Amino acid sequence: MSKKAELAAPPSAAYFGEPWPEFNDGLTYHDMVRPIDAGLTLIEFYSRKYKSSAPLQGWLQRIQNKQITVDSKVVTIPDTELSFWMSRAGTELVYHRLPWREPDAPYLLQVLFEDDYLIALNKPSGLQVLPGGLFQQRTVLTQLQWHVSKLTTSSSGCRKTHPVPVHRLGRGTSGILLCAKTKLAKSRLAAYFAEGTSVVEDKYTNSECKKMRKISKIYRALVSGVIDMDEVLIKQPIGTIKYPGVAKGLYVASPSGKPALSSVHVLERDLENKSTLVQVEIQSGRPHQIRIHLSFIGLPLIGDPLYVSGGQPKCFDPELMDESFEKDGGYQRPENPVPGDCGYNLHAHQIVLIHPITNENRCVNMIARLFSVPLEEETAIGVGTVSSSEAIMLAGLAFKKKRQNKRKAEGKSCDKPIIVTGANAHLLMFSTMERNYFFSI
Hints:
The chain is globular and about 85 Å long. It has helices at residues 42-49, 56-64, 140-149, 183-201, 206-212, 289-296, 368-371, 389-409, and strands spanning 5-7, 14-16, 27-32, 68-70, 73-74, 92-97, 109-114, 118-123, 164-165, 174-180, 215-224, 231-235, 238-243, 246-253, 261-270, 275-282, 307-308, 312-313, 346-354, 361-365, 418-421, 427-430. The strands form five sheets. Strands 1, 2, 7, 8, 9, 10, 11, 12, 15, 16, 19 and 20 form a twelve-stranded mixed sheet that branches. The protein has a four-stranded antiparallel sheet with strand order 3-6-4-5, with no helix packed on it. Mean pLDDT is 79; it is low at 1-12, 367-389 and 417-441. 20% of the residues lie in helices and 27% in strands. It has eight helices and 22 strands. The chain has 441 residues and is α+β, with helices and mostly antiparallel strands. The longest helix is centred in the C-terminal third of the chain and has 21 residues, at 389-409.
C-alpha cells in the first residue's frame, strides 16, 4: 500500500449547481394489482400500503381529485374493489402526486477532489442528500444528475452515468460527501462501509476497529457543556421508537438497538460559555449517530432542535398522531422537531480511505489550508468562503485562535470583532475574540 497522500482542493475551487425551480415535477407511484389484493377496495389499498403518506381522509381526497389511474384510466370511486380488475393480467395502479413547492435549500456544491472514479463534495447545511419526504427534487443527487446531463456526450453517443452518494450525511450536517462515479467504485465503497459496521457488531476493540477499517469519517462538532476528559469512547446501541412525522421510527439511544461506536477527542474548551469543540470519529454508521451519542453522555450539539441529554428526543406524546392533512392530502408537518431539522453545529471534516480502484491511501481534509493560513501583520482580519455556516464556523475558530495567539505574543489587544461571511447568506459573528456569541442567518 502506498504512502498516505494529502489531497488538497483543486487549484481554483470548482463549484456547480443550478437554482431550484419554484415547483418540482411531482411524483408517480406505481403498483401492480396482485391476487392477494383481490379483497381490498381502492381506498383500503392506498390507506394501508401508504399509511405514512396520508391519513384515510387524505387518500379519499386524492382519489376524488382524479390522482389515481388504473391502466391509465382515472378512477374516482374509493370503494371500487380491486377484484374488478383481477381478470386482466398486469393491471397497474398509479398515484399521481401533484407538483409542490419544496422547502428552501441551498444548491451550490463545491468539488474538493475528483478523479475518474470518485468525487468528494462540500455539502452545505440544509441540503438533503437523497430524495425523501418533502425533498424530492432539492437534493445533492438531483444536482449531480443535472450537472452530468449538461456534459457533452461521449463518442459512442451515450451520456455518462451521474455520480451517486455512497454514505449518509444529515440534511443539517455540512462537509465532505463522497460519491462514486462508476458501478465498481460504488460497490467497493459500499462494501467498505458495510465491513466497518460489521466489525463494530463483532465487538472488536476501538483500536482493532481502526486498523481493520478501509474508510473512516471524522467530524467536528460544537457541543453544549464542557468535557473533562480529553478522550471519550462512546459505546451505545442505537434503535428506533415510534415518533410523529417519522414513518420508519426515530433513531435514539436504545439498549436493544444495534451496536454503535464513536471516538471523541476534545479540541477546545470554552469554560466561559460552557461549550466544547470536539472531533468525532465514528466506527459505525448509524443514522444520526453523533447527535445521539453526544447527547447520550449529556453533551448535545449546540442548536440541535431534536436530541437532548440521554440520546432521546424532546418531550412528545408518541400516541398523539395528527390526522389533519395538507391541500394535497398528505399529513401536515408535525409540531414536534424531526431529524431533518437544521441548526445544529456538525461538520464532516475529513474522510480517510483506501482508494477502491487504485488501492492508494487518500485523505480529503476540508479546511486544512484555513488552519495553516499565514497572518500577515494587520492585513488579515477575516475570511470569506462560499460554504455552510458550520464550515464557516470552524474556519473562523481556526483563524481566531491563530490571530489571538499572535496578538497576545505581541502584547496587543484581542478585542477586535471578526465577521466571517459566506455568499450563500450564512453569517457567523464573533462579538469578541473569546467567542461569546454566534449568530446564524
